[in-house]
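input
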Amino acid sequence: MSRRYFLTTAALATGAAVLHGCSRRRSPAELQGKSAVVIDPSKVVTWRLASSWTANFPVFAASVQRIADDIREMSGGRFQIEVDPSNKHKAPLGVFDLVREGQYEMGQSPAYYWKGKDPVMSLFTTVPFGLTTDEQSGWYWYGGGNELLQKAFAKHGMLAFNAGNTNMQMGGWFKREIRSIADIQGLKMRVPGLGGEIYAKIGVQVVNIPGGELYSALEKNVVDAVEWVGPAIDIPMGFQQIAQYYYTGWQEPCAELHVIVNKQSYDQLPADLQAILRIACKAQSLDLTSEMVYQNAMAWEEIQTKYPSVQVRSLPSDVLAELRKQTDVVLGEMAAQSPECKAVLDSQRAFLKKSRKWTEITTLEYLKISQELG
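output
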């Protein structure tokens, strides 16, 4: 998808900024009452969106609803999105198929949930030891990432739009401290995606457990460690009550969520509603990313105050070195087996080589200076 494709909707982007910056969202009834034009019910487009999250899932559930609200308001009520949480459609990991098969026009989820459908999908969410949130954003919008994203989804009859980033994720909650690579071998851990594949290569027993069962599994020693997201999402799960060590991350230096859209349904929309859909997703990409920064900061303060026994740790250097080594092995295997994976990885690595130098002399250097000065 070209840069021009997004720039053609600049005027609508201004409208989206107004929605997020200086007005409350209005209901369909309010929109109807304030509009000089009566909306013909037969002209209203109603879509359904399948979310991977339950209705009360922290941050993410509200983010999905904001997309629907913005679309309704920017369209003057002509475009309505009905959001179905995972506890309604019963397929939190099946959103890909629900949208591809046309049961839902839209879905929202991280693409790495669909690695089993297409290996390249995992690379669009995050890559271990890869791009940070800011770097990945630059890659997506200006470094060719969006074009590769659309190419990957087009063969499945869908489009995909960025819809927010969790930022750097934590490495997980551990019930015992990891002092060397010997301590991690044989460890039973819930960790998904590429991170799980890489951990398995150094001797971790990777366990797949549904989110709703994680607290019980950790409490009853079914697993020794759990990787989830970060403080804002982790606190409601209660992990801090039963695991003392909170490790910093390497496996998800960022994690992009995506809205996916059935291509046939999209093509049936008039051009202005297509543009409104794109801009609503782009606006939420900024909104969710910003909210995660805020909510994580608030949640970390809560952990420090209410759970002072929680200790932040980083994995030992020998563990990290072996994880980095095995990351290269796993990604190399993906590139060898799939031309699409190779194209995405080559593109990301080329941009990382350039962007990381800039990150180091700006953000990293500033943080060092700030820490030294106190």
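quick obs: The mean pLDDT is 91.
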